[in-house]
Amino acid sequence: RKEVEQDPGPFNVPEGATVAFNCTYSNSASQSFFWYRQDCRKEPKLLMSVYSSGNEDGRFTAQLNRASQYISLLIRDSKLSDSATYLCVVLPNTGNQFYFGTGTSLTVIP
Amino acid sequence: GAVVSQHPSRVICKSGTSVKIECRSLDFQATTMFWYRQFPKQSLMLMATSNEGSKATYEQGVEKDKFLINHASLTLSTLTVTSAHPEDSSFYICSARGYGQGIQETQYFGPGTRLLVL
User: Percentage of residues in chain A with pLDDT exceeding 90?
Assistant: First the structure.
């Protein structure tokens, strides 16, 4: 079983739509969780961390469910500029390795 | 804060030559750096984990004699692709693990290096 699993999509949504991505992780001892965004032919960039209490940054909301071992990212009022691949990243509580999901592709359509 | 640079951004070379890529953390110290490779429309693939002052840890299937990694200081790691061949053409991305120093503990990526081997 993979450490981190994501639905690869693609998700094609109209402008203004709300879209949600989920990600599951296998190591229950994982301590830190992140969402990254990767644009085509660019490097991944940190979008936001994910906390147990849930956190919001503008149109983006991230949530963590430790009991079910999944992380979600909600994007409200989608913009064309939100089109990218969104990567779920998990850091276990031991060791150096970060585990990346394969990414979910989002295209926002005019 | 937490900026990582990578040089060169793009390189074209002949088959059989060696190519060196530098990864620097500009405003923080990184005891751990990571090297990834990404082929078009595919996921990031971790090649190796580099710890300052010690040997790199390579992922299964990655040849350590082919991809030489040196992490001589807390702000610099280098990847040398030795005797490059066309199948080594890819997007190579480094990242540095930030910790303390007023930044979030996560990976910060360099802008990547596009390698084309003719």
Answer: 77
